[in-house]
Design a protein that fits this description.
The chain is of the alpha/beta class and about 210 residues long. It has one domain (about 5-205): Rossmann fold (3-Layer(aba) Sandwich), CATH 3.40.50.360. Helices cover about 40% and strands about 20% of the residues. It has six helices and seven strands, in the order E-H-E-H-H-E-H-E-E-E-H-E-H. The chain has helices at about 20-35, 55-65, 70-90, 105-115, 160-170, 190-205; strands at about 5-10, 40-45, 90-100, 120-125, 130, 135-145, 175-180. Strands 2-1-3-6-7 form a five-stranded parallel sheet, with helices on both faces. The longest helix is centred in the middle third of the chain and has 19 residues, at about 70-90. The two termini are about 15 Å apart. Bound molecules: flavin mononucleotide (FMN). Flavin mononucleotide binds near residues 18, 102 and 146.
């Protein structure tokens, strides 16, 4: 039995969101194919993610010096640790984002800050950082109104490229993307673009 962790970062209702709807279709197809697997769904706009703030950093620094964090620092660090452990316990990951101002929504960034932890998900060597999350696979489901798949706007994609770079940093190299793009740039083709993304998500679910 595998564990699939699906992290969604979108405050919209599912029916108003292309990325969330595509993710729902992916999960439906995945469940049908893998009925014994455990699926954890975490929408980081519905369940708050602790920010790495001054108290967290102060607490981490105290731990490094062998000192005890304050109760408040400890509480925040524990909340982050829970997310790191949940991430490490999964075998497969699905990240679901809309493009917001060329990148991912800030709560996805906050979530990613909880899983990039030296000593747990990567470590430093003299040759540079090495990822510790090995043998796992990931999918990024992403919706954006304009086109960023081809040059010259491809350089402005700080969403899919960021997710992929970060996962690679952690050691996850088997990463696919389903990108629904251009539906606001070409509204007459919006439905066809969306349906193609749903079909691609269902296709990937069968082999994920
Ligand atoms: C705050 C905000 C910023 C956005 N920024 C971009 C952008 O930089 N590029 C783009 O192509 N679309 C942008 N959009 C459009 C969304 O990416 C598009 O509506 C997409 O379908 C959102 O995904 P969703 O339908 O899953 O919510 C933005 C939308 C919002 C609400």
């Amino acid at each position: 039995m595998a564990v699939l962790l699906c992290v969604q970062a979108n405050p919209k209702p599912v029916e108003d969101s292309k990325s969330l709807t595509i993710a729902e279709e992916f999960l439906r197809a995945y469940r049908a194919k893998n009925p014994g697997d455990r699926i954890i769904e975490r929408n980081v706009y519905r369940e708050p993610v602790p920010f790495v703030d001054a108290e967290v950093i102060a607490g981490w620094e105290k731990l490094q010096r062998g000192e005890s964090p304050s109760p408040r620092e400890e509480e925040k660090i524990k909340a982050i640790d829970v997310l790191t452990e949940e991430f490490l316990s999964a075998d497969k990951y699905v990240f679901v984002t809309p493009m917001w101002n060329l990148s991912v929504p800030p709560m996805m960034k906050a979530y990613l800050d909880t899983i990039v932890v030296a000593g747990k998900t990567f470590y430093y060597t003299e040759q540079g950082p090495v990822g510790l999350v090995k043998g796992k696979k990931a999918l990024h489901i992403h919706a954006r109104g304009g086109y960023y798949s081809q040059p010259p706007t491809a350089e402005m994609d700080f969403a899919d490229r960021y997710i992929r770079a970060l996962l690679s940093f952690l050691g996850i190299e088997d990463v696919s993307s389903v990108i629904c793009e251009g539906h606001e740039y070409a509204p007459d083709r919006a439905d066809a673009i969306f349906q193609a993304a749903v079909a691609e998500a269902r296709r990937l679910a069968a082999e994920f």
